[in-house]
Amino acid sequence: DKGNHRHFMAKEIYEQPETISHTLAHYVDLAAEQVSLREKLPFDFAKLSRLTITACGTAYYAGLVAKYWFERYARLAVDIDVASEFRYREPPLPENGLMLVISQSGETADTLAALRYAAKEGQHIAALVNVQESTIAREADVVFPTLCGPEIGVASTKAFTAQLTALASLAIAAGQARGVLEPSEAHALVRALIELPSAVSEALRSEGAIEEISRGLSRASDVLYLGRGQMFPLALEGALKLKEISYIHAEGYAAGELKHGPIALVNEDMPVVVVAPSDELIEKTLSNMHEVAARGGKIILITDDEGAVQAGDGITDILLMPKAHPFVAPILSAIPVQLLAYHTAVFMGTDVDQPRNLAKSVTVE
Ligand code: F6R
């Protein structure tokens, strides 16, 4: 049932304040404002030598955000790869390493194969899944759930933000167990997560402005997405969402890579979506953005009030998001990139919930 939405994808985008809340309530003791894991861990975060993350598509981008979190907040070394590459690389895996696979369906063939390889190589196996009865869940030593309900739209939306919410909580747990996060620091991060659902509701209210921008985007044949640091995976996710449902060619790049090639593509016909909430890296990203603007590129900047002031003039479109703690900014920024792809696809008249050539669950490699 789509409720009063035209597509399941729209309904699922709008469910995110609740699905994030449900997922958070599983990982966080809301009264104590502390992460409190219900799962019995078959490993000790304090003693882990390395975390290896493997997944496909959007789940892989969730893992890529988590790499920034685990490295920064838990000082845990993280290796990450798409499952289709990981499974054939025959990577050496360390003693006392943890393999974390991420999968909405829990049935993705490559992700399952990567899990089995890691199990054979003696890794602890954790799975972050939405479908609790899935094959991947059954084969893991510990299962972390996302609690977003069934996802019907082929393009993943609410599963992505639920994965990020769970991963953020796990990164805090790891940071505390490893003695990296002081209680007050951990508490500030948990507070940011608790405040997230209301910020997501607020972000959803910018739909009108996003629809306007999408009208222009639907006339483009190529779109570039840029982000830096933990926003880089959001650039990748934004580009993936746009191409899979609108069929417009899009590429996500780390903002700093721009001058190593892709800037050659920039002209007046190329919209460039810059995902840059105000944080310690925004100056760098904005300077990349101005390089694009100087070459006539049309810019769509996703930022907050502070970022908009720093950005100055010459920006074609600014999409204002609520100000959030930088820790949760990747989760909040998922909303505008999802809505941008959704409305662009609606303008194009594509089959949003069932894009051509795609299946919800990829059970063959
Ligand atoms: C993109 C999308 C896919 C999936 C990928 C992994 O919107 O939905 O990229 O994220 O096929 O699927 P799961 O998470 O089921 O392993």
TrEMBL record:
Its main location: cytoplasm. It catalyses: D-fructose 6-phosphate + L-glutamine = D-glucosamine 6-phosphate + L-glutamate. Keywords: Aminotransferase, Cytoplasm, Glutamine amidotransferase, Repeat, Transferase. GO terms for biological process: amino sugar biosynthetic process; carbohydrate metabolic process; fructose 6-phosphate metabolic process; protein N-linked glycosylation; UDP-N-acetylglucosamine metabolic process. The active site is at 360 (for fru-6p isomerization activity). GO terms for cellular component: cytosol. It comes from the Bacteria. Its EC number is 2.6.1.16. Residues 41-180, 209-355 form the SIS domain. GO terms for molecular function: carbohydrate derivative binding; glutamine-fructose-6-phosphate transaminase (isomerizing) activity. Transmembrane segments: none annotated. It is found in: Cytoplasm. Catalyzes the first step in hexosamine metabolism, converting fructose-6P into glucosamine-6P using glutamine as a nitrogen source. Homodimer. This is Glutamine--fructose-6-phosphate aminotransferase [isomerizing]. It comes from Pelagibacterium lentulum. The gene is glmS. The chain holds residues 244 to 608 of 608 of the full protein.
